[in-house]
Amino acid sequence: MKLPEATNFIEQIINEELEAGKFESIGNKIQVRFPPEPNGYLHIGHVKAMCINFGVKEKYGGKINLRMDDTNPAKEDYEYVNSIVDAVKWLGFEYDRLVFASDYYERLYEIAEKYILDGNAYVCDLSAAEITATRGTLTEAGVPSPYRNRTAEENLRLFREMKAGIYPDGAKVLRAKIDMASPNLNMRDPVIYRIAHVPHYRTGDKWCIYPMYDFAHPVSDALEGITHSLCSLEFENHRPIYNWFVEKAGFNAPVPRQIEFARLNITNMLMSKRYLKKLVDEGFVRGWDDPRMPTIAGLRNRGVPPEALKKFCSDVGVAKAYSVVNQAQLDSCIRDSLNVSAERAMAVLNPVKLTITNFKGEETLEFDRNPMQEGSGVREVKFSGTVYIDRDDFSLDPPPKYKRLYKGGTVRLKSAYIVRCDDVKLGADGVVEEILCTYFPETRSGSDKPSEIKAKGVIQWVDAKYGKDVEFRQYEPLLTDEQYPEQDYAERLNKDSESVFFGKAEPYLSECVDGKPFQLMRTGYYKKSSENRLTLSEIVSLKDNFNK
């Protein structure tokens, strides 16, 4: 069979296995899965895992399951399930089946009994603290449990009593019987089942014992016929126990193969569902979809295009070694995508009035919707001679080579006219209140007649008569700096991660649908929304700090 060209080490492994005939018995069909736990909203790190798994499915014409690894009922809920499904679909990925680890509770229980009957599992009465204390260290072997040599009959009776709800939480656990002297601590008789009298969001009160992730995950893979379990690097030390559980369950070949890749780490970005949930619960952010959050819901709410996230993950690539990616690279991908798709518009964050003293009446001007898209056309913009410009576009004491407006200088108002500043009105505090200008009629944008008057700079403006009041929101990373190993994330939280300004915007913005992205000249890319007022929220700045 002709194999696709491998572009990373995972695909190289799959090609080698296909060439060796490992999957001939199943028609050379590759099957993978994306298995998040529904205990929080997915974040950008999960996008990389999705790109890898769904990419393998597409490249090899295989199948993929979206599986909820829901074995911890105290932290899981349908809210998270729905958010995961929504995130996967928003990113444009299509899965073949939606399944749940809880679908397999009966089979998992049967396999656990098989372990007991085969002498590979036992019921242990040690507490969680005692199990931890007797597990040993990297240099010292663990101490075997005093309950390790119970007979299969006694273990089976006790395990069934655990299932029947006879014992309280923590009274007993079912442990795998492997090797308390193994150099891999994960192999030192890990817990398979624990007692938890907690209702499950899907199964209710049917179960009071629940399988542990290290057991349920590989066995669920095998039950589904998964060929490759693609996971992040922190599970590398769990691979021997993954293989052990599958082998002792007695599954026929081919059995799943776990392959690890480096997880996505981004500077100044908190990527842990546990910590992100803490930010939500403590009210530091307004929810999982707060635009400052690195969750997929937050990035979507911020206005980040899904194709930008996938392009970013593609650029980062698939590697085995740990690395940290600069957030500027992500911003660059977002900016590149929006530069093509976003309409242009005018708005000023810090407005100051500019009056053209020799202009009478009003005109209708044409403004390019998007110069990056052929055929995007123009829209009409009203111009009445009194406008607002941004204070940053004017200087009383301009530095050398200043290309914006100053007294005696000229500048072009975007899609309008060249104006010259003749005078300035100052307030009692010395702050500029009004800029008085002369305009040159022959310099109208789009005019067929060239003008001898030139301006080095072009600035945006909003007409004073027709402009709308707008709330601007700008964002900084939730973390103030890059991570230090001994530093708690709470010490790095940026309390000024959101800034709010009030300015002016052209009326077209208030007429557009919510969620529409715009490029505001020399300001950045913003998403329009209507809450209590017209709001423009920053998606990404115009400044590109990523060295391509």
Report on the structure:
With 548 residues, the chain is an alpha/beta fold. Helices cover 26% and strands 24% of the residues. The chain is built from 13 helices and 27 strands. It has helices at residues 9-19, 44-59, 78-90, 105-117, 128-133, 152-163, 213-224, 239-249, 273-281, 296-302, 306-316, 327-341, 508-511, and strands at 31-34, 63-68, 97-100, 121-124, 173-176, 191-195, 209-211, 228-232, 257-261, 343-345, 347-348, 351-356, 363-368, 378-383, 386-390, 394-395, 405-406, 410-413, 418-426, 432-439, 458-459, 462-463, 468-475, 498-505, 517-520, 524-530, 534-541. A 7-stranded mixed beta sheet has the order 10-25-26-27-23-24-11. A 7-stranded mixed beta sheet has the order 21-18-19-20-12-15-22, with no helix packed on it. Helix 2 links the parallel strand 1 (31-34) and strand 2. The longest helix is centred in the first third of the chain and has 16 residues, at 44-59. The chain is elongated, with a radius of gyration of 31 Å. The relative contact order is 0.10.
Count of strand segments: 27
Structural class: alpha/beta
> Which geometry do the CA atoms define?
elongated
Spatial separation of the terminal alpha carbons:
38 Å
Radius of gyration: 31 Å
Q: Estimate what percentage of residues fall within beta strands.
A: 15-25%
Largest sheet entry:
7 strands, mixed
State mean pLDDT (0 to 100 scale).
94
* Helix amount: 25-40%
Number of helices: 13
Strand order of the largest sheet: 10-25-26-27-23-24-11
